[in-house]
Specification:
399 residues, alpha/beta, five-stranded mixed beta sheet, two-stranded antiparallel sheet, 18 helices, elongated, IS110 family transposase
Length: 399
């Protein structure tokens, strides 16, 4: 990394950003405030033009979405930039309770001065891909919620149906959109029309069996619940279409970017599919941001919380201070590799035989999987069981 002499901290808010430039923690070069506008961006750049660009490094906290346009503007103008986790910056705050945007900018600049040599050359996560996968994740959560609502309603309107068929097949959802209860099906005619549109999939249910099931149902007449069920089915169908669109967006983005090789590396592990790989890479970004696998584990919030006082030292649960989206996808990946991958299944079974509960055993797999992914991505090597076994005790640290 370059030898920087000017350290610029930026505190970003919705409508403005405060700037503090220092040469060292006790020497402030300038402090200013700018509007979050094109004019404000230009004024800030003009202020920095008084100094050699190669001597300047700029840092700001991750603020959700507010910092992104400013970060993109500065990066496009060839300024060296870094984005800090607010927890990192917090360690440099004063013990005083006084907190202003001006003070926060100064704290960020101070943190940047002390941490300048710990900032990797590639310090960013691709925000566009991350936006796509998080939006997709939100759709999945909404689908799960709507399905829960549908199941609750059907438990009143036609409780016997879920016992004999998949209520989320296209055929059944289409049928329920028109006849949303056992009472409605009892009065229906030409139910064969719905089953004739089935896409060739075998089903134990046909129009005659459905009619018999409805006639013997315990369901009573609930007209308002029927209308609510129809609306829930429409919402589910809409969300499923949205999910397909996000899947297409992810694939299109990855085809036009440089992460296809990383996706191939991750999916070489049996049990990890393309969607999981894309979610993981979107949250992690460039693996070179992490000089050791332990830093990646901490970024995920999977490091143990430790309480130490004198001779007493207690390791508690995982800290959960990192990326919650990443923890979720790693858990799903770990469960999948235990099912589909002999190497990780053997490791999981050994933990279970040692008397470790299910969740802790899966968490052990998460840690092992994360170390494996880290090594594979750093070395650009695909998964091989013999290779994994021979390196299972290796600590993957890179300079």
């Amino acid at each position: 990394m370059n030898n920087f002499s000017i350290f610029v901290g930026i505190d970003v808010s919705k409508d403005k950003f405060n700037v503090c430039a220092i040469s060292n923690p006790s020497s402030i070069i300038f402090e200013s405030s700018f509007d979050m506008s094109q004019q404000g961006f230009s004024s800030f750049a003009n202020k920095l033009s008084a100094f050699p660009k190669q001597s300047i490094i700029i840092a700001m906290e991750s603020t959700g979405c507010y910092h992104l346009n400013l970060l993109a503007f500065l990066s496009s103008n060839d300024f060296a930039c870094a984005v800090f986790n607010p927890l990192t910056v917090k360690n440099f705050a004063s013990l005083r309770k006084t907190k202003t945007d001006k003070i926060d900018a100064r704290i960020i600049a101070t943190a940047l001065f002390y941490l300048q040599h710990q900032i990797p050359s590639s310090a960013f996560v691709n925000s566009e891909l991350r936006d796509i996968v998080r939006a997709r994740e939100n759709i999945i959560h909404r689908i799960a919620k709507v399905k829960g609502n549908i199941e609750k309603l059907l438990n009143v309107l036609f409780p016997e149906l879920e016992r004999v068929t998949n209520i989320y097949s296209d055929t059944i959802l289409n049928l329920l959109s028109h006849f949303p209860s056992a009472k409605a099906i009892q009065k229906a005619r030409n139910l064969d029309v719905f089953f004739s549109k089935d896409r060739g999939r075998s089903t134990k249910l046909n129009a005659q069996k459905l009619k018999e099931l409805a006639n013997n149902s315990i369901a009573q007449y609930w007209p308002m619940k029927e209308k609510i069920l129809v609306q829930n089915i429409k919402e589910l169908q809409f969300l499923q279409q949205q999910l397909e669109e996000y899947d297409k967006m992810m694939k299109e983005y990855c085809e036009c970017s440089a992460i296809n090789l990383d996706i191939e590396i991750l999916t070489s592990i049996p049990g990890i599919g393309e969607n999981s790989a894309m979610h993981f890479l979107a949250e992690v970004g460039d693996i070179s941001r992490f000089s050791t696998y332990k830093k990646l584990i901490a970024y995920c919030g999977l490091d143990p919380s430790i309480a130490q006082s004198g001779k007493s030292k207690v390791e508690g649960h995982i800290s959960k201070r990192g990326n919650a989206h990443l923890r979720r996808i790693l858990w799903l990946m770990a469960v999948s590799v235990v099912i589909h991958n002999e190497y990780f299944r053997t490791y999981y079974e050994r933990k279970r035989q040692q008397g470790i509960p299910y969740k802790k055993a899966i968490m052990s797999v998460v840690h092992k999987l994360l170390r494996t992914l880290y090594a594979m991505l750093r070395k650009k090597e695909k998964f091989n069981i013999d290779y994994a076994i021979s390196h299972s005790k290796q600590k993957f640290n890179f300079a």
